[in-house]
């Protein structure tokens, strides 16, 4: 296939449009992450004691936080579907239906046991480390290792 001058110009403009943004464009994500971490710390969501209270059924605090997140998610998905909301780039948002499998029960149990034992959920791990709980680095490394092990054995596990 012979490239014409127009083909070459189109390929160059495509490369320019698909190039990675400069590093400072990612600062907004860092700032949102820091803000999210501060909210987690102030709301005591990263507190090992709060998480233990939840698993011992001694406090409503964490159930309230999780419940409000679920309600917010339900309302958000409903609004996205009802008003056909698009992404910031104008692309349609598609939410595909999920199929239930017994592997989700096993995975949920393993996740819950790990959460109860370590007092850490994957979301707040970085906030816990950032607030000075450096021992949580071992929990983070274990989560990464667990993800790798799952990926390695995925085809042999029940789905």
Automatic annotation (TrEMBL):
Domain of life, per lineage: Bacteria
Keyword Amino-acid biosynthesis included in the entry's annotation: no
UniProt keyword Hydrolase present: no
TM region(s), chain numbering: 29-49, 61-80, 105-127, 133-153
Keywords from the UniProt entry: Membrane, Transmembrane, Transmembrane helix
InterPro entries reported for this sequence: Sulf_transp_TsuA/YedE
Name of this chain's protein: Sulphur transport domain-containing protein
